[in-house]
Amino acid sequence: MDILIFAEQRASKVTDAVLGLLAKGGELSKEFDGKLHAALLGDAVGSAASMLFEHGAAVVHVVEHPKLRLFQSDLYASALYEIVRRAKPGLVLFAATLLGKDLAPRLAAKLKTGLVSHCVDLRVELDENGKKRLVEVVPGFGGLLFAKNTILRMPQIVTMTPGVLGRRRQEKGRKGELVRLSLEDLGLAGFESRAETLEVVETKAVEASIENANVVVVGGYGVGDAERFKLVEELAEALGGVVGATRPLIDAGLAPKERMVGQSGKTIRPKLYVGVGVSGAMQHVVGILNSKVILAINKDENAPIFDVCDVGIVGHAEEVVPRLLEELKRRKASK
């Protein structure tokens, strides 16, 4: 079974989420003895193909045209549909970004096939006949449990939550098969979009990207107020990390929405995650499970976060965090 990745790009550079899709797609294509394809759409994006090859793609389908400079949902969906008809993959993978969540269901409707959204894992299991099948894992019932799904029609369409997938090591200079296509080749030369994107306005990014941070310190409901949230910020600064928050603190205005960690926020995989006053509800835990080390600080010894953490400290944040800060300062001074 061949697998096709939709290579979402910004300013002719593929996004970090795509690199994770390539890693997972590479694993799955080996399991099913297939090839890993990537579809790259845009204007003057051909140079990004080398990055796709170096991260595992065997075949890259490139469609370049001024009409594709900005994302036009119906034109992109039609072009991708034509690529899928030619490549005949058994699985098409998207990142569950705003663009991916728009494009994936459009493609699924055109192909009259199934779609599973916001997956946190893809697994290969054996069915009752001993045959390999793909299983999609998604948080269900508000994040209270994980559900396993199987799409019965081919090709299967799946969107993956950004941040849950690691990257494979880049192989500099790796080459593959480059397939250049024009809108004319795809029968779309005269295509007219019913809704046209005229401009994309980039919002100012938060100081540091929480998805790519090595250390993330998250404040939870137990932090409670702005005064104690300052302790979270101080600890993040002392550890050289960035600040995150759970939904109650976002709703209280203590942190911007871009800092929310969990099912409805960011999925992170830092080397060190520190949860301060985080209870450990499943909606939050699904966003941190790939952290290398999870440290939890909570006054409730029965908090669910202690079931998933590597190191747990039972105590009030206003007592524990200052002592951690003192120890960090002492160690820094002794170097």
> Count of DSSP E strands?
17
Rg over C-alpha atoms, rounded to the nearest angstrom: 22 Å
State the oligomer.
Answer: single chain
Question: How far do the termini sit from each other?
Answer: 55 Å
Could you say which overall geometry the principal axes of the C-alpha atoms support? elongated
Largest beta sheet: what is the strand line-up?
Answer: 7-11-6-1-4-5-12
Strand count, sense and closure of the main sheet? 7 strands, parallel
SS strand fraction: 25-35%
Helix content: 25-40%
Series of H and E elements: EEEHEHEHEHEEEEEEEHEHEHEEH
By DSSP (H or I, 4+ residues per run), the number of helices equals 8
Low-confidence stretches: none
The average pLDDT is: 90
Question: Which structural class do the helices and strands define?
Answer: alpha/beta
Description:
27% of the residues lie in helices and 25% in strands. It is an alpha/beta fold and 335 residues long. Helix 3 (73-87) packs across helix 4 (98-111) and helix 5 (226-238) packs parallel to helix 8 (317-334). The protein has a 7-stranded parallel sheet, with helices on both faces. A 5-stranded parallel sheet has the order 14-13-15-16-17. It is built from 8 helices and 17 strands. It is elongated, with a radius of gyration of 22 Å. The model has no long low-confidence stretch (mean pLDDT 90).
